[in-house]
Task: inverse folding
């Protein structure tokens, strides 16, 4: 088995071991990763629960921790433990007994979180119905906090709006900070920024307001210029390294690359679902190995393979994008080099765009990893069938 196939089987084994009991809804014989992952209202799970797929709905009761990832994740049930969620759109409207850690593009929290909430996304919204009993740490392009927070709120964002009750201190670093008439801060307000916060006359701040000094010579414009320069340099280095690796891969394994890109075109939903599952579950398994002395080497090896797979997986999605540009599908005799180079140029340019570039990279990796798993599974099935045929003959 070639190197890519070995890496694929490693990740696939991890997903299968942890993903088998995940799916509560399966309508036919197809892989449930292409369906909705649903825990219906009234269903009870004793212990931790893993849910991955294009759509994830948790309406039942989980008496343990919840690990979920998908294109759209909705939790409106009860989780009597921690919640760790990643998705393009995440909605938490249920009851979470302990901590919630969420990463996604659009995050909406309108339920109850018993302890702390850590939220990272492009658009983060804590609605008026939401309650976080202890602390909130939030980061994103736009952060809007309207629900009650029992203790501290720490926010880093481009734009931040507070229109809620916060039991203790607020610490915020943002280009724009606004406290509406509904804002109530039980302790201090500390902020980093060139512009003072916009504070409504009816807003209540019981502690002192402190402006933290910016580093000497620092300004928003200089920081922006520095970030742009770093992004361009990093993008150029990434372009060169991806180009070299892609050309080597296409030279050594052209047929397997064609199979993986075909999986993206022909089975996009399973590719996305398996990709999300692998990206989220594999590091959790590897870290659990690392903290266990007896299987520490296996955890280190799995983490290394995980990093390599994440980097290489982009190549297959980039090839598929290049084929779309040329309006041509690959077959056994066609070269993938031209589509790869064209797709890489398009990908590298779009990756420079703020926010869009990060989302593009995330999607590119997810789809590529999922397609690797789908193609690897198909190839393994063909090999087993051939072995059985040879055994019969």
Result:
């Amino acid at each position: 088995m070639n190197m890519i196939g070995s890496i694929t089987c490693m990740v696939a084994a991890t997903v299968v071991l942890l993903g088998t009991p995940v799916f509560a809804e399966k309508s036919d014989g197809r892989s449930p990763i292409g369906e909705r992952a649903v825990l219906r209202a009234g269903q009870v799970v004793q212990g931790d629960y893993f849910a991955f797929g294009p759509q994830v709905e948790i309406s039942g009761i989980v008496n343990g921790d919840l690990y979920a990832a998908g294109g759209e994740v909705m939790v409106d049930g009860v989780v009597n433990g921690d919640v760790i969620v990643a998705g393009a759109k995440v909605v938490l409207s249920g009851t979470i007994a302990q901590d919630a850690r969420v990463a996604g593009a659009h995050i909406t929290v309108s339920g109850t979180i018993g302890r702390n909430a850590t939220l990272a996304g492009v658009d983060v919204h804590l609605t008026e119905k939401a309650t976080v009993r202890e602390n909130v740490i939030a980061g994103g392009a736009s952060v809007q906090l309207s629900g009650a927070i029992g203790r501290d709120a720490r926010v880093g964002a481009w734009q931040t709006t507070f229109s809620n009750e916060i039991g203790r201190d607020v610490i915020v670093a943002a280009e724009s900070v606004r406290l509406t008439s509904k804002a109530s801060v039980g302790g201090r307000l500390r902020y980093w920024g060139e512009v003072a916060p916009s504070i409504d006359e009816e807003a209540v701040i019981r502690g002192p307001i402190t402006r933290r000094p910016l580093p000497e010579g620092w300004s928003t414009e200089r920081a922006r210029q520095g970030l742009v320069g770093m992004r361009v340099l990093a993008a150029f280095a990434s372009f060169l390294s991806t180009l070299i690796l892609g050309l080597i891969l296409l030279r050594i394994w052209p047929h397997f690359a064609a199979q993986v890109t075909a999986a993206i075109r022909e089975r996009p939903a399973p590719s996305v679902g398996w990709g999300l599952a692998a990206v989220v579950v594999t590091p959790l398994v590897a870290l659990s190995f690392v903290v266990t002395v007896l299987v520490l080497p296996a955890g280190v090896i799995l983490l290394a393979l995980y990093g390599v797979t994440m980097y290489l997986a982009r190549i297959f999605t980039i090839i598929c994008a290049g084929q779309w540009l040329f309006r041509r599908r690959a077959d056994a005799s066609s070269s993938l080099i031209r589509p790869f180079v064209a797709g890489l140029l398009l990908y590298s340019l779009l990756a420079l765009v703020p926010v869009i570039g990060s989302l593009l990279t995330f999607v590119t990796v997810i789809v590529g990893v999922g397609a690797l798993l789908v193609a690897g599974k198909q190839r393994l099935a063909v090999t087993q069938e051939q072995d059985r045929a040879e055994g019969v003959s």
Observations:
- Confidence is low (pLDDT under 50) at residues 1-34.
- The first strand starts at residue 36 and ends at 39.
